[in-house]
Sequence to fold (166 residues):
Amino acid sequence: MNPRSRLQEFFFPKVTYKFLFRVTVVALSTYLFFGHVCTPLFIRGRSMEPTYPDGSFTFCFKLRYLVTRPERSDVVVVRLAGKRVMYLKRVVGLEGDAVEFRDGVLYRNGSAVDEPYLKAPCNWNLPPRVVDSGRVYLVGDNRNMPIEQHDFGQTALWRIAGAPLW
Fold:
């Protein structure tokens, strides 16, 4: 078989039942995997820099919290409105924790928390808040912007869609 006919056969295969079955299996597997296991995410916004820069790409691994709950310092993907709008945030408090910011330092249950993932120091001040049952407290890593411009706070565990794959 000459190279030209092999190339033609590769790009234009004969349509047989076996070929149609393989195409159907590949299409269905791709739909299930990328729709329900690892959903592609394009990161828009700077709230998680430098960990996840604006314009970068990752996958949301939806099975991550199927049988476990998020832990402190985990980065999670949070559903907001439907399946298209999601936030990427870091868990800084679990249910029952008292979370506060004093002069830019995060305090959990009265103790300062070491956060090596932060880009720059901040000047946030926020009185203590106790995390409600069935919720976690989320904050972005890029805290050098004013506290009023940052989306953070408690969210219900059922809103957590998964975790970024990398």
In short: The two ends are 44 Å apart (CA to CA). The chain has a mean pLDDT of 91. The first helix runs from residue 3 to 11. The chain has two domains: 1-37, 43-164.
